[in-house]
Specification:
GMP Synthetase, Chain A, domain 3; Rossmann fold; 19 strands
């Protein structure tokens, strides 16, 4: 396994995505930001660019440092002096050369604060060595998602560098430029968009999907639009990829660097067979063989909406804190084709579910819950107390 040099141009793509994510979240999603694919190395951090104030700059630099472990090289403070995203990318590249041997990705969802998940570069490169064998005919990577999370980073940063092929960001762009040998890296909700849009694919175009369960009907629908093959990757921010399959009814095949260690755990071998790292799985698996399994569902009762882990209990608690609400129940809805959450809201004593009350609460939900957490099917009921 050879070391992969991470050039500033690749680092820049990750910084644009993580910066957009942090700024958008810090500003409550209420301010229009230019899309990250329009940013380049000259984009200023402050005036005329990101317009980041001193507090935001600290948040952004902390996020970049945590992801790329610049503190290990002792140059994290350089980020605060940088004037452009390009300068940030150069600092990260220097940190990689000096000492940074790990990278940290974060989880997303409603189970609490985002959880940091550190990975060694050696472990990521081990996975890339295998992934390139799954897609040997790939001539170009087509990305439709951010690359600061582990799935996007593996497939749209490291894989093209390993295979020495170009990357095309098609977010916000037309799919008319697809060509034979393209590998589209996406997630189930976006694949559903492509199906509903009826977009035909040229010959020899492949796809890969992860971040959430893939509906059984999607691969066949995409095949009818001429997609050559859709590969499903099962994994998590904590583990990286664990298994793969190309038929929706088939079990997942365990990646070669993993082996089963009981019903709930896996062991990962990092190059040295004597060195193994145990990992506790978040999902319940049905093992068909020692290296083949089906995914039964999460152990923590979360559901995935648009690739984001959503805790119905946490959503219910948040809605229940509204002054008009006495209590709230939230559960996985049955809406097709993509799962969402449903809710029953019991109003405070003396408040009736009149149209004005329903409208006010729906408006509050739109303003205070991100789309993945927002119930799409809501029933309003008066309090049972008299």
């Amino acid at each position: 396994m050879e070391e992969i040099e991470l050039p500033p141009s690749a680092i820049l793509r990750t910084l644009a995505d993580i910066t957009h994510h942090l700024l958008n979240g810090g500003r409550g999603g209420n301010e229009e930001l230019p899309p990250p694919w329009e940013w380049d190395e000259k984009t200023p951090v402050g005036k005329g660019g990101l317009e980041a104030d001193s507090i935001e700059r600290l948040t952004l630099c902390a996020g970049i440092n945590r992801m790329y472990h610049l503190h290990e090289a002792g140059i994290e403070d350089y980020l605060l002096r940088a004037k452009s995203i390009g300068e940030w990318a150069e600092i990260v590249a220097e940190g990689r050369k000096r000492n940074s041997k790990a990278i940290t990705f974060t989880t997303s969802g409603t189970t609490g604060e985002p959880k940091p998940c550190a990975h060694s570069w050696a472990g990521l490169l081990q996975e890339i060595d295998f992934l390139q064998t799954l897609f040997p005919r790939t001539r170009r990577i087509i990305r439709t998602l951010p690359c600061h999370h582990i799935y996007g980073f593996l497939f749209t940063i490291l894989l093209p560098l390993q295979m020495k092929i170009p990357v095309l960001d098609l977010r916000g762009r037309s799919f008319s430029g697809l060509a034979s040998g393209d590998l589209i890296v996406s997630f189930p909700l976006y694949w559903r968009y492509l199906v509903d849009s009826g977009i035909p694919f040229p010959k020899e175009v492949f796809g890969v999907t992860s971040t959430a369960p893939c509906p059984e009907e999607l691969p066949e629908q995409l095949k009818s639009q001429n997609l050559q093959r859709l590969t499903q990757i099962y994994g998590s921010s904590e583990t990286g990829g664990i298994g793969h399959r190309t038929e929706p009814e088939s079990p997942f095949q365990l990646f070669p660097h993993w082996k089963r260690a009981g019903e709930e755990k896996l062991l990962r071998t990092l190059h040295d067979p004597k060195k193994e790292e145990p990992v506790t799985l978040q999902d319940r698996l049905n093992w068909m063989a020692e290296d083949r399994f089906l995914v039964l569902g999460r152990r923590d009762c979360c559901i995935q909406v648009g690739g984001i882990n959503v805790s119905p209990e946490a959503v219910a608690e948040k809605i229940g804190g509204h002054p008009l609400v006495e209590s709230c129940s939230v559960w996985p809805g049955s809406q097709k084709p993509e799962p969402r959450v449903s809710a029953e809201i019991i109003l405070q004593k003396g408040i009736s579910p009149i149209p004005e009350v329903k409208k006010a609460l729906r408006q509050w939900l739109r303003e205070n819950l991100p789309p993945a957490q927002r119930p799409t099917d809501i029933s309003f009921k008066p309090s049972s107390e008299f």
